[in-house]
Amino acid sequence: MHSLPVFLRLEGRAVIVTGQGEAAEAKRRLLERAGARVVGEADGDARIAIVSDGDADVAARLRARGVLVNATDNPDLCDFTLPAIVDRDPVLVAIGTGGASAGLAAALRQRLEALLPVHLGDLARALFAARAELRRLWPDAGTRRRALARALAPGGAIDPLGFDPDVDFWLADSPDAPVSELHVLHLRSADPDDLTLRDARMLAQADRLYHRPDVPDAILDRARADAVRIIADALPEARVEGVSLWLTLGGADDLPD
Q: Is residue 257 domain-resident?
């Protein structure tokens, strides 16, 4: 991962924009939508700047002041890049290429715009409003996370890509607590794109990963960052050809014999 994606709260904060023309105006509109206060280079309160014409001298002056800079079309001068955005407020999907290709990011955004329904924002707000009920039903954080993952999965009770998911109806239906699971994953190759959809989903939900030392980082990185990773030289399914992982979802701390 070449950079860390973050979402900045800019409401009322000063952000420098330099340059003229449509590129500068587009950046100003984007910042104003996020609630930022757009200012010029001389403003001493700003800690973020967008140099819309990629001017190297302006970028250097601002960076010397400790300002984080985005210089359009000049990735070598960028402390951060601006992603293409799919906005389903409060859900935001950001697509970045590290400055490699704005065109590719825009093309992916257009695909996602067609894929992600307009009700995603309503679903997010409903889940936020249901936090107390979620905690009542599943006091344990791990169990609660698995219940949500099951409900939000493809075909689940509140599948976000399904038709009008209803959080209140799901919770009123008294869903059962998810049981602990053990999933064995046999890799076809070192390429994470070769994972089956089910394997990828289980990997993303796992609480613990027991893996042999030769499992590639590209595969392990598909798991949650807070999932426990345990190197196990001898997995129970070692007789099966290919690299294996054991994934545990809740409960079990140890591998079966």
A: no
Q: Domain tally for the chain?
A: 4
* Whether residues 87 and 163 fall in one domain: no
Residues 36, 37, 41, 43, CA torsion sign: negative
Per-residue pLDDT tens, the chain, 257 aa: give them: 678 889 999 999 999 999 999 989 999 999 999 999 999 999 999 999 999 999 999 999 999 999 999 998 888 899 999 999 999 999 999 999 888 888 999 999 999 999 999 999 999 999 999 999 999 999 988 888 888 988 998 888 999 998 889 999 999 987 777 767 777 887 888 888 888 888 888 888 788 888 888 888 888 898 888 888 888 766 655 444 444 567 665 544 455 55
Residue 101 lies in a domain: yes
Print the domain residue range for 144.
120-172
Handedness of CA 213, 200, 123, 168 (dihedral sign): negative
Beta-bridge mates of residue 16? 39, 49
